[in-house]
Amino acid sequence: MYPINDRQYIAICSEIAKLLSVSLSSAKKKVEIQIAKKGSKTIEEKRQVAQDLLKTCENDNRKKLSSSKILDKLMSTLENEDNFITED
Question: How far is 16 from 40, CA to CA, in rounded Å?
């Protein structure tokens, strides 16, 4: 897939990157995967896919389901298990 250099599209992708705490290229890749799944051809369709993904990310962020918050929760320890390490 050729890179999309539309300013509005890139602005939407940058908002997605900010909400997901990932790089712009990662956010664009995530959108491009959705574009490929839906078979979008025109730039307007591609912008709409990006906008839909942005709305999903905003809803997840409001519900405290962002990837960075989930990772923070997973990385926290219980008080009595601070020094516990499981060996493989």
Answer: 19
Q: What is the pLDDT of residues 17-57, one digit of tens each?
A: 998 888 999 999 999 999 999 998 888 999 999 999 999 98
Domain boundaries, the chain: 7-66
pTM over 0.70, yes/no: no
Distances in Å between the Cα of 39 and the Cα atoms of 1, 9, 42 are 12, 17, 10
CA distances in angstroms from 58 to 18, 41, 79, 82, listed in the order given:
10, 25, 32, 33
Among the listed residues 33, 9, 30, the one whose alpha carbon sits nearest the alpha carbon of residue 21: 30
**Integer Rg of the chain from CA:** 17
The number of residues in the chain equals 88
* Rounded alpha-carbon distances, angstroms, from residue 69 to 6, 15, 72: 30, 17, 5
